[in-house]
Write a structure and sequence with these properties.
This protein has 5 domains: 4-115, Rossmann fold (3-Layer(aba) Sandwich); 120-289, P-loop containing nucleotide triphosphate hydrolases (Rossmann fold), CATH 3.40.50; 292-368, Orthogonal Bundle (Helicase, Ruva Protein, domain 3); 397-450 and 537-591, Orthogonal Bundle (Arc Repressor Mutant, subunit A); 452-498, no CATH class. It is built from 21 helices and 14 strands. It has helices spanning 12-24, 56-67, 80-84, 98-118, 125-137, 154-163, 182-190, 207-210, 226-238, 264-269, 275-281, 298-313, 322-330, 336-349, 363-366, 387-423, 459-462, 488-495, 548-562, 567-574, 578-588, and strands spanning 4-8, 28-32, 45-48, 71-74, 90-92, 144-147, 172-176, 215-219, 240-241, 250-251, 255-260, 284-287, 437-438, 541-542. The strands form 4 sheets. A 5-stranded parallel beta sheet has the order 2-1-3-4-5, sandwiched between helices. It has a 5-stranded parallel beta sheet with strand order 7-8-11-6-12. It has a two-stranded antiparallel ribbon with strand order 9-10.
Length: 591
């Protein structure tokens, strides 16, 4: 016999139809009158046949506060505001089919029973969807693949599948395949015969044999060695295997639930995971959401962890104030539920005897950018060979960081070179000159100084005015031939930029087109001097002698000013990862 369902007698025809539907499915049903007092533990669900009746609110309050059970309500549409005050889990129209109410109630009750059995906490849509998926697939024997980030509770969900399945009275065996070497893993999974290898003084049954008629949970299935993948595939397809050193096949009936935090499709494409094995274990799939996608569940998780840790350690906990809880809800939690649980346990054990405030929360949670993303330990002198495998993840992290930095610098260098080619940036400026270019409004401002002959055309006009060409040796520009009524000095002075040492009434006018040997362009109106660029107007100013680091620092400052200091939007504007931007801000001291 299943649990007891309470149905109110506000509307007797509706109550009679619901009573018959629930009883036909194996539930016990008790009818409650509008003024009846509900005893604790009386039922697991309350159905109000008229949720808008005067006494319905009192019954709903008793179900929520005393019984702690969900409440369903039947009411005519259009009264949503009044129904919202009752806190109903589901609302139905008066003409609803009783079987539909039964189906929704069964799913809800199974989900709550699963949460009680496994300790899974959460009421957001993401976690409800995962729990409903467990309820759907638990009764069958198909292989299940559970994916999700590390710390999301994959083993809890695997135990939930086993707890709701017909195999719940048999063994549930969990094994982390990444924690064992290939030779030990084969012996642990499939067993071995006496004398199969050195030290095998007796025969031993493997975990698959121990899980016969039960469930075996293979955690971190993506780390399984290729040699074991072949043998595991045969177990899944033929339901039989050979022990290490054995000759007779052994048949086994065990449901396999696998879990991984990797993308197995990527592993298949890279050749590290067998394609046929992937299709064989990915029959039923459960995707667990990370904690950052269900932040509304964080207060419930904190409450559950506080109660558990306080009872286990016999410690009194004063609670967490609203500001501290807001910080916990806004944190990204890269370690997911496992990281949150460890933090709550440390707060309970090290409680200062008062409410936990923002200052009591670790700095890496209050300010995620204030600490390194990954602590890289410094190895001691002379590490053993076995330590090299432990250092590999840290070395890979350092290598990826260096590659990202190199890519960022290469991209910046290519953009700068493209800009120079587009605007013909003059690299031949003398040390006494200053050339500045504003990226938002490109221009070149070169101060006029005395140049040795032959004088080049002014940088501001080099991209627009054609250069006079005379008969001169290849590779050299000859000065223009002066006219008959001009002296050589006057012709030379007309071709070169104005001299700072010249008289105030001298003007930098271009030479007149009097020479027949010179092809002069048409006369153009004088160009106004370009204004000096502003200190910072959404762009950056490039100056000769600036290093790439100087340019990068100015680009970051300009992006931060553009988005009012938002680092997330600045990273998008710069086209780099947010983590890379945090690192560069700390590097240049821009906090």
């Amino acid at each position: 016999m299943k649990d007891t369902v309470l149905i109110s007698t506000h509307h007797l025809p509706t109550a009679g139809g619901l009573r018959g539907a629930f009883k036909s499915s194996g539930y016990r049903v008790e009818l409650v009158t509008p003024r009846e007092e509900l005893d604790p533990g009386a039922g697991v669900l309350l159905v109000l046949t008229d949720a808008l009746a005067e006494s319905a609110e009192e019954l709903a309050a008793q179900a929520r506060d005393r019984l702690h059970v969900p409440v369903f309500g039947v009411a005519a549409p259009g009264r949503e505001r009044e129904l919202a005050a009752l806190g109903l889990a589901e609302t139905f129209a008066p003409s609803v089919d009783p079987d539909e109410v039964l189906l929704i109630a069964h799913t809800l009750l199974e989900r709550r029973r699963l949460q009680r059995l496994t300790g899974i906490v959460g009421e957001t849509d993401a976690i409800r969807e995962a729990l409903e998926r467990v309820v759907q697939i638990a009764p069958v024997d198909s292989t299940v693949l559970i994916t999700g980030e590390s710390g999301t509770g994959k083993e809890l969900f695997a135990r939930g599948v086993h707890a709701l399945s017909p195999r719940r009275h048999k063994a549930f065996i969990a094994v982390n395949v990444a924690a064992l070497s290939p030779t030990v893993l084969e012996s642990e999974l499939f067993g071995h015969e006496k004398g199969a290898f050195t030290g095998a003084i007796d025969s031993r049954r493997g975990l698959f044999e121990l899980a016969h008629r039960g469930t075996i949970f293979l955690d971190e299935i993506g780390e399984i060695p290729p040699a074991i993948q072949t043998k595991l595939l045969r177990v899944l397809e033929q339901k039989e295997f050979l022990r290490v050193g054995g000759e007779a096949p052994i048949r086994v009936d065990a449901r396999v639930i696998a879990a991984t935090n990797q993308d197995l499709r990527h592993e298949v494409a890279a050749g590290r995971f067998r394609r046929d094995l992937y299709y064989r274990i990915n029959v039923l799939h459960i995707e667990l959401p990370p904690l950052r996608r269900r932040q509304a569940d964080i207060p419930r998780l904190v409450e559950a962890f506080v109660a558990e840790v306080s009872a286990r350690n016999d410690r009194r906990f004063a609670g967490i104030n609203a500001d501290a809880m807001r910080i916990l809800c806004e944190y990204a939690w890269p370690g997911n539920v496992r990281e949150l649980r460890n933090l709550v346990e440390s707060m309970v054990v090290l409680s200062p005897g008062r409410e936990i405030g923002p200052d009591d929360i670790p700095a890496q949670v209050r300010s995620p950018g204030s600490s390194p993303l990954l602590p890289v330990p410094t190895p001691g002198p002379g590490p053993a060979e076995g330590d090299s495998a432990q250092l590999r993840p840290q070395l890979e992290f350092v290598f990826r960081t260096l590659v990202e930095l190199r890519v960022d610098m290469d991209d910046l260098r290519r953009e700068f070179e493209a800009y120079r080619q587009e605007h013909r940036f003059d690299e031949a400026l003398l040390p006494g000159e200053t050339g500045r270019v504003e990226i938002v409004a490109p221009r070149v401002d070169a101060s006029a100084t005395e140049l040795e002959p032959p004088p080049p055309t002014e940088p501001a006009q080099a991209a627009e005015a054609p250069i006079p060409v005379l008969d001169a040796p290849s590779g050299h520009d000859a000065p223009a031939t002066p006219a008959a009524d001009e002296s050589p000095d006057e012709g030379l002075a007309a071709d070169r930029p104005p001299d700072h040492a010249a008289a105030p009434d001298q003007s930098p006018a271009a030479p007149s087109a009097t020479s027949e040997d010179v092809a002069q362009p048409a006369e153009r109106p004088p160009q106004p001097e370009p204004p000096e660029p502003a200190a910072r107007s959404g762009g950056i100013v490039l100056q000769p002698g600036m290093t790439l680091e100087d340019i990068e620092r100015e680009a970051i400052l300009a992006a931060l000013e553009e988005v009012d200091g938002s680092r997330r939007h600045a990273a998008r504007l710069l086209g780099i990862a947010e983590r890379t931007l945090y690192r560069k801000i700390r590097r240049y001291g821009l906090e």
